[in-house]
Amino acid sequence: MKIQVYNTLTQTKEEFIPRKPGEVSLYVCGVTPYSDTHLGHARPSVIWDVIKKFFRYQGYKTFHVQNFTDVDDKIIQRAQEEGVSALEISQRYIDEYLESMDALGVERADVYPKVSEHMPEIVQLVETLIEKDHAYATQGDVFFHVASFPEYGKLSKQKLEELRQGTRFEVDPSKRDAADFALWKQAKPGEPAWDSPWGEGRPGWHIECSAMSYKYLGTEFDFHGGGNDLIFPHHENEIAQSEAATEEPLARYWVHNGMLNLKDMKMSKSLGNVISVQQLTARYPKELLRFYLLSTHYRSSLEYYEGKIEEVAKGWNRLNDTILKLQEDLVRANSEQPTDLDQKTLEKVAALERGLLEAFADDFNTAMAIGILFELVREINAYKHNGGNHLSVLQKAWDVFVLYGSDILGILQLEKQEQEGLVDPLLNLLLELREELRRTKNFALADKIRDQLTDLGITIEDTPQGPRWKV
After folding, report:
1. pLDDT of 420
2. Per-residue pLDDT reduced to its tens digit, 133-178
3. 414-437, pLDDT tens digit by residue?
4. Where residue 390 sits, what CATH number does that domain have?
5. Which of 138, 147, 129 is nearest to 207 (CA)?
């Protein structure tokens, strides 16, 4: 099946054609580790986790590089405030980020390069740009000369002259042009610095990613990912300096996710309006959080507010309830006399599976895929409601749920989650008491137990196999 990808560079969907047959290489801009990992960081991480798993299901081998920007003004400021080294601050929050992603079920990247460990590669790339007259040194700084790269602006679709007139650039008398950006910065007192041909200093933000992606992926790779807030200037500048140095394209497909907004405002550490992943994973199952993050197409913005997770949990619970009941039905179907094979339902399940595959192949449309999973819920529930219990139908539905809902999306709990403490035995005792009241025709008291449990958020379902409860 052809996979269509929306490419920010061309602003259109394109058929995915890998640089190397059977392989997918990708570089995703990672976090600047100076504070707790928040839900905005989680969104691209979960998205790329799903994309990788889908490609592997399609038979591709993936290689994923995600950097840590551990040399940055905000890290330095935090270190000075705490009286520790900048690398101590960054390592603390790198560890916290990885733990947070583990808690969300995000598979780790193949390589997590740090800026601080790649100074030789960065210096060498800057030297190459100077040798090719794309960069110049002045008073300990090195700048990329934007005018030397005629294609500047091709990613963000902004014209250089319009950017100059709009004063989008920092005014610096040592620059040849206001649009020129720093490749190397002269050391300042009290800040970490490294040796270079231009004196002690540290790299500019953009050159870091170019050097690290070049080291691990070469001059051209398949995907470059990140939030759409990185299109300009970060990714625009990456393209300029990388392609000026190598004279080859940097990435084939530029994939950008929309922002996660808190009350119509971008969630950002600098704004102080973050919701940490650790806070959320302490309150909610990882599968529910992934369900929320994937329920909107990755290119669209995603809204968060207090109570939002509880809202989406209603649908998520319905999906998981069907899975747990289907699991029980499969066990019974092996021991009971089955109904005749319903070929029509089997064909519908197969058609929904094709729809899931098409949704993923259409620019990784997780929102559409989740919608199709709910269609499968309705189909299989209707089949069982009408007395269907053929193992072939139930097994096919189960296999589809497991592959797409669990293995790729990671939004399903395939096992019943036991409640802590005495909740299970107490609720089961109440259900037994309610059944005894119903047998003795004390319906008023039986209904009172049911209604008060409902008020507490616990639903009782009366089934042929006996009553069941769920939160």
Report:
1. 44
2. 999 999 999 999 999 999 999 999 998 887 776 555 666 788 999 8
3. 876 554 445 666 777 888 888 888
4. 1.20.120
5. 129
- Nearest of 110, 109, 135 to residue 122 by alpha carbon: 135
In order of 81, 93, 170, 327, the CA distances from 77 in angstroms are 6, 14, 21, 53
Q: Is the pLDDT of residue 358 over 50?
A: yes
Is 350 part of any domain? yes
pLDDT per residue as tens digits for the range 241-264: 999 999 999 999 999 999 999 875
Here the CATH number for the domain that contains residue 215 is: 3.40.50.620
- Whether 224 and 341 share a structural domain: no
Q: Do 402 and 460 sit in the same domain of this protein?
A: no
- Using CA atoms, how far apart are residues 106 and 99, in angstroms rounded to an integer? 10
Listed residues 285, 304, 323: the one ending a domain: 304
- Average pLDDT, integer, range 299-305: 94
- Closest Cα to residue 252, out of 10, 45, 432? 10
Q: How far apart are CA 212 and CA 90, in angstroms?
A: 18
Domain shared by 150 and 192, yes or no: yes
Residue found under tokens 């580790």? 33
DSSP strands (E only) in 251-321: 251-257, 260-262, 265-266, 302-304
Closest CA to 300 of 47, 105, 64: 47
> How far is Cα 80 from Cα 470, in angstroms, rounded to an integer?
51
What gap in Å lies between CA 358 and CA 54, rounded to an integer?
Answer: 12
pLDDT (0 to 100) of residue 424: 63
Q: For the chain, what is the domain count?
A: 3
Please report, as a single letter, which amino acid is at residue 177.
Answer: D
Cβ proximity of 321 and 417 under 8 Å: no
Domain extent at residue 443? 423-470
Are 345 and 447 in the same domain? no
- Mean pLDDT of the region 333-361: 90
Distances (CA, A) of 133 to 137, 145, 244, 410: 11, 8, 9, 49
Mean per-residue pLDDT of the chain: 91
Residues 432 and 396 in one domain: no
Picking from 408, 433, 451, the residue at the C-terminal end of a domain is: 408
Is the confidence at residue 269, as pLDDT, over 60? no
CA angle 407, 410, 414 (to 5 degrees): 80
